[in-house]
UniProtKB/TrEMBL annotation:
This is Phosphatase PAP2 family protein. It is found in: Cell membrane. Residues 230-363 form the DAGKc domain. Residues 1-27 are annotated as: Disordered. Keywords: Cell membrane, Hydrolase, Membrane, Transmembrane, Transmembrane helix. It is a multi-pass membrane protein. Pfam families: DAGK_cat (PF00781), PAP2 (PF01569), YegS_C (PF19279). One of its GO terms (molecular function) is hydrolase activity. InterPro entries: ATP-NAD_kinase_N, Diacylglycerol_kinase_cat_dom, NAD/diacylglycerol_kinase_sf, PAP2/HPO, PAP2/HPO_sf, YegS/DAGK_C. GO terms for cellular component: plasma membrane.
Length: 536
């Protein structure tokens, strides 16, 4: 027995009948398209009848509630909040990307799609009443807004999150889409169109925000022996308890991320030597002494602490085990190490890789200003150093991106350019960024790379005249597209020379700001540092 699904296609007016903005048939429903639409409509009604007649024990109670929970995106925004609370970067990025995708897909479907097609809802005489527990929607049916939001969120999460999280989210999105047919709210064609629009919205977020690869590739250290023991014998771990927000104000009240990581090391590698840095202690000396007696040098702390550990590991030719314990842990995350447990697993597996180490060294011979200043992530000068200072002071209270916004506005409002000669060319440098490897993002604080062993420096510079359109520059920084700033230049190089005409430079390396000589040379030691890496 078939149901009478009247008005399942857009209403067609009789010739000569008055038309209105609400009832006039759209142009696509007339002429040669009518026969095609008629066949598709019959197939859609047949598929709806099959689903309506299906009996799926238990799901009569589950699917209507699941469909209801997705009203107005409540299910997805709740999931996004839960992912954000995990504080895992990949999950937080997935939640944000999925939410942005919903913000794009929802108006496309509800404002444009439904008004353009104006398809009536199905007649639900074959749908058991137990499935229709709430008032059916009265808006137009095509495309399905619930399905679009579900697919948009699932696609956004899948671009960032690991499969263990993305797969359940995708399965839930598919269940919501099926529930819209099962409860009689939509024809299958409505749902398929919504899924397509949502998936395109999720994938389309990459146009303005490139998806970040979960792990940067590194060169495998073939043929290199490393002593790995089950109990951690031979490992010397240096812990900076001030990293990750565990400063003097909170020490003894709540353990910081570095202290939690150190505790895990003590439990999992009981034979490892743990060295805890004291306030005011000479960090470079402590790492040098630890590396001298270590088979494996481990470091627990943020990027600045990892920077000091890399110097000691290079000087003593020992592999480095990076255990995340800071606020951002950019280098650890580039390696794919997002937790202390992953770092311990990488050590036990004995997988070594080799990564590039970049440096800034005095360009003038005999300058007497020390040797190479290493960096694993980025170095910057110009107003960038002031921007970094301001952002770091604000980010613990505001969060990273709001802090960056406030810091950019304040810095670019008052900053003056650095008069410098860059590779022989005189420039007024407002912002300068030098990355250890090519970074994939376009913002003022690039954070991810596809490789850690490409042998190149990523140079990005905003150099204009004495006066610069500051509103445009601030907008470019806040939009995450530094290349839109006036005077922006970017290039890849194996080296870079900078001579500041005004005297001493301030140089930020891996988030740590310090004075530098006026003439500096940037370069790279390709694949110089051996590090433990997780399984890719």
């Amino acid at each position: 027995m078939r149901s009478n699904h009247s008005r399942s296609l857009p209403v067609l007016r009789r010739p000569g009948a008055p038309s209105s903005a609400r009832t006039a048939s759209p142009a696509w429903s007339r002429g040669p398209y009518r026969a095609v639409l008629s066949r598709l409509g019959r197939a859609d009604r047949w598929a709806f009848d099959r689903v309506a007649a299906a009996r799926l024990p238990g799901l009569e109670y589950v699917l209507p509630r699941l469909s209801r929970s997705a009203d107005h995106g409540v299910l997805w925004f709740t999931t996004a909040a839960a992912l954000g609370l995990t504080r895992r970067p990949r999950l937080r990025r997935g939640a944000l990307r999925g939410s942005i995708a919903i913000a794009v897909a929802s108006p496309v479907v509800n404002i444009l799609g439904k008004q353009a097609f104006r398809r009536a809802r199905p007649v639900v005489d074959l749908v058991p009443p137990i499935r229709i527990r709430w008032k059916l929607p009265t808006s137009h049916a095509f495309p399905s807004g619930h399905s679009a939001s579900a697919a948009a969120f699932a696609a956004g999460v899948a671009l960032e999150a690991p499969a263990a999280v993305a797969a359940p989210v995708a399965a839930t999105a598919a269940a919501v889409a099926f529930a819209r047919v099962y409860t009689g709210a939509h024809y299958p064609g409505d749902v398929l169109a919504g899924l397509g629009i949502g998936a395109l919205a999720g994938l389309g977020t990459r146009l303005v925000w490139p998806a970040r690869p979960p792990v940067a590739r590194v060169t495998r250290a073939e043929g290199e022996d490393v002593q790995v023991t089950a109990d951690g014998r031979g490992v010397v771990a240096v812990v900076n308890p001030g990293s990750g927000g565990s400063g003097e104000a909170t020490r003894g009240i709540l353990p910081g991320s570095a202290e939690v990581a150190a505790g895990l090391l003590e439990r999992e590698l009981p034979a490892a030597e743990i060295v805890v840095l004291e306030p005011g202690q000479d960090v470079e000396k402590a790492f040098a002494e630890a590396a001298a007696r270590a088979d494996v040098l481990a470091v627990v702390g943020g990027d600045g602490t990892v920077n000091a550990a890399a110097r000691a590991a290079l000087d003593h030719d020992v592999p480095l085990l990076v255990v995340p314990g800071g606020t951002f842990d950019h280098f650890a995350r580039a390696l794919g190490v997002e937790s202390p447990a992953q770092a311990i697993a990488a050590y036990r597996a004995g997988r070594l890789g080799r990564v590039d180490v970049a440096y800034a060294a005095p360009a003038a011979p005999g300058s007497g200003d020390g040797g190479e200043r290493l960096f694993l992530n980025t170095a910057s000068f110009g107003a960038y150093t002031e921007l970094v200072d301001r952002r770091e002071r604000l980010e613990k209270r505001l969060g990273k991106w709001p802090a960056l916004a406030v810091a950019a506005v304040r810095t670019l409002r008052h900053a003056e350019p650095v008069e410098a000669v860059v590779d022989g060319h005189r420039r007024h440098v407002w912002l300068a960024f030098v990355g250890n490897g090519v970074f994939g993002s376009h913002g003022a604080a690039p954070t991810w790379r596809e490789r850690l062993d490409d042998g190149r420096l990523d140079v990005r510079m905003v150099s204009a005249g004495r006066r610069m359109p500051r509103v445009r520059a601030v907008a470019a920084v806040l939009a995450g597209h530094l290349h839109m700033a006036p005077g922006f230049r970017a290039w890849r190089a194996g080296g870079l020379e900078v001579l500041a005409e005004g005297g001493e430079l301030r140089l930020a390396r891996d988030g740590e700001v310090a004075p530098a000589p006026p003439a500096i040379r940037f370069g790279k030691h390709s694949r110089a540092l051996a590090v433990f890496r997780p399984e890719c």
